Amino acid sequence: MGLKEDLKALEEEVKKLIETASDIEKLNEIRINYLGKKGKIKSILKMLGKLSPEERKEIGQLANRIKDYLEESIREKTELLKKKALEEELKKNKIDLSLPSHWIESGSSHPVISTLIEISQTFISMGFSVAEGPEVEKEKYNFDMLNIPPDHPARDMQDTFFLNNGDILRTHTSPVQIRTMLRYKPPVAIIAPGRVYRKDADPTHSPMFHQIEGLLVDRDVTFRDLKGILKIFLESIFGQDVKIRFRPSYFPFTEPSAEVDIGCTVCGGKGCRVCKGTGWLEILGCGMVDPEVFKAVDIDPEEYTGFAFGLGIERIAMLKYRITDIRLLFTGDMRFNQQFKGIR
Ligand code: DAH
Q1: In sequence order, which residues have a C-beta less than 8 Å from that of residue 245 and are 6 or more positions away?
Q2: What is the pTM of this model?
Q3: 152 and 21 in a common domain
């Protein structure tokens, strides 16, 4: 057999090997054995010297063509095997997008905070600003300057938490009125939401609870302005049909003073346990700022008038969500809290 036939036979042999090679190592082996420096084609080419120039040219060209062809075949097969390997790998680690994902528990606002925000938004929309004051307060701001004299029953040890240094935990948000009027000259229109503290604990009283204070001072402010603002507020919280009544009352820091009731949201006014048979629910205290309070903060009561109001946020939240025991709001019991998911 001549060299030509040897080469052709070799080509067929290698073609088959490449075809059946099932991994990249095998292909490398083939390249080394047949196409490498010490490979079989090289050893055939070494024998070219013994041939005539014509034959040498012919066989040489044939050998190179076969070599190029086989190298290309190996490259193609290598690519193919790599692609297959990748496909296998992707199939093995396939991500199933239809599987349900991990359940992430979402939080939500506490009903007291939802109510606080809702009430605040109503007043903010009417032009009131939000003011703040400290929870550890001076007796002077919490009582004296609000025209609550030292012998007033509200100052009783039974109600107020006293601290060792003589300060107290504020018993209402009304001291923010004083702090605001000391800092800003009228006109002022603020609400002051926040925590307050009283020594009291039963189904409707908690030693810590939240209030919102309101204060508006300007020239020519009248009781009619107070009624209008509170009407808008109560309608926005309890609905347009809410019945409202002003009842004369007494607070040391307002004159005249009133308490505001709404028609019972539970029985609609017929009388039930929640409204204690009266058909009315007490919602807030209010009145015209007492001239004594203006004097304490150096505002001339001849020039300015104003109104103030204060309400308990838990009470509103309890009425809104029909909660019968205030203590439920502060136990942190998730079975209770989770019922308010989705409420604002
Ligand atoms: N501070 C009062 C309380 O805690 C609530 C209150 C009543 C505030 C009348 C006011 C007001 O500003 O005018 O019971």
Answers
A1: 260, 261, 262, 280
A2: 0.72
A3: no
